[in-house]
Amino acid sequence: MGIINNINKAFDHRIRLGIMAVLMVNEYAEFNTLKEMLSVTDGNLASHLKALEKEEYINIQKQFIGRKPNTRYSVTTLGRKEFKKHIDALEKLISNK
Amino acid sequence: MESKKYLEDITEIKNMMNRSSRFISLSGLSGILAGIYALIGAFIAYKLVSNSHRGYLILDGHIFRLVMLDLALVALASIVTAILLSTAKAKKNGEKIWDSSSKRLVINFLIPLITGGIYILIILNQQKYGQTAALMLIFYGLALINASKYTLGYIRYLGIGEIVLGLICAFIPGFGFWLWVLGFGILHIIYGTLMHFKYDRKK
Prior knowledge:
The complex is a heterodimer.
Chain A: H1 2-5, H2 14-25, E1 29-30, H3 31-38, H4 42-54, E2 58-65, E3 68-75, H5 77-96
Antiparallel strand pairs in A: 1-3, 2-3
Chain B: H1 2-21, H2 28-51, H3 62-93, H4 100-125, H5 132-148, H6 155-171, H7 176-200
Helix pairs in contact in B: 2-3, 2-7, 4-5, 5-6, 6-7
């Protein structure tokens, strides 16, 4: 079952899919942008971001704008590749049934 | 079934990609209204010029200033209408009007437009008046095409249309007025109508 193999556990959650989707089409996204787009709480978003970071699917870039801390996320080459595989697998799965 | 969950996932992904990268609340109705303002403005300009004792436009007369005022009012009314209607539509969609996608749209629209505006001012200062109408159409078209990457739909074709008219206008500057009416009036109305029926009316 090659199709199932490509389903990536790391993406198997709504919020993680959402994070990846936003990052795929944007150069980067800020924490607050993601929070608003996905309408989730800080803690919830942070833990999903951490999980994706651990897999090295996303980059984290912390900086200061003025005196405010600002965190930007962007997708890594590996993350881009894996996410594409995951979506292809999903699409195949659906069209097979 | 599992596949239903996955289908929902994919729909969600597509939705996210669109919402985060494109400003989707641009109102079609504002396009129609901009076109109508342009036609009214053109009518007033036409009356002003044909009722003046010369019957044609010269550049540093009283009539010229009135025509410029007319032009500025049309532009202002169009911009205000676009902002108001798009804000209303964004609210209905549960979108913020001034987020990163709308900022990107406005910035990318303004780069070619301001470049063109400055260029036109420069050549006007050099007393080269003949190509003004053509240049305005061309740069406006380029601005639309540049902005089209950050919003949806037909705006790209509107831009192409304006550029084509601009080039025709460069070729036959004598018809500048009518090509303006066509470009800023009629094309906007067609574009707005298409947008309105395709995107606004759905919900």
